[in-house]
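INFO  loader      accepted 1 record
INFO  loader      residues=217
INFO  predictor   begin
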Amino acid sequence: MTDAALRVVLAEDSVLLREGLVRLFDEAGFETVGSYGDADELLAEIETLAPDIAVLDVRMPPTFRDEGVRAALELRKRMPRLGVLLLSQYIEGTYAQELLSSGEGGMGYLLKDRVASLDELEDAVTRVSQGGTVLDPQVVKELIGRRADPLATLTPREREVLALMAEGRTNGGIAQQLYIGVGAVEKNVTSIFAKLGLEDSGSDHRRVLAVLAWLQR
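INFO  predictor   done
INFO  writer      dumping C-alpha cells
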C-alpha cells in the first residue's frame, strides 16, 4: 500500500506561474487540492480542502502588498498544524517575523528567483508539510537585520500612525488623515508603545519617547 499523496493548496495571482506550479507539484507526486488567484478565495475554502500544506505568494490582489503573508498568519491561527510555504519575489520582513515568532515548525519562505530546481522545491514542500522550517538565506539575513531594531516590528499602518504622531497630530487628527476611526488609531498607538517597550510608568511621556525613536531611526 502506497502512502497518500501530499495535499497542496496554492494561491498565486499569476495564471502562468500558478498553472506551472500545479504541473510541478503533479510531477513531484503531490496532489493540488485547490488553486486560487488570491488569498481571500483560499481562506474561504481552506477548511473543506484538508490540505497538508499551503503555498502562497506574498503580494496578491487587491493591493499587491502583503496579502499572502497576512493570509499565512490567518491560516496558522485557524489550522496550527498546517504547513505554510511563502514563495515570492519579495521579502516582507515584518509579517514574516511575526509568522516565525512562535517558534513552531511547518513554515517556509523561499524567493522564486532563487529556487534552482524542481528537486529543491519538492524538498521544501515536503519538509514544511512535515513540520520543518525552510528559509532562503536572504530571508534569514533580512530577519536578523531587523531583530535589533524595534521599529522594524511595526506594521505598515503602525508606521503611518507613528509618522503622523511625529508631525504633532492628535489621535483625532491621525484618524482624519488616514480615514479610520479614533478607536483604531488608539489601538495602533497602544501596539506601538508595546513593540517599542514603552511601558506606562506614570511619569515618562510615551508619546514623546515613541516619536524620538522614530526621528532617530
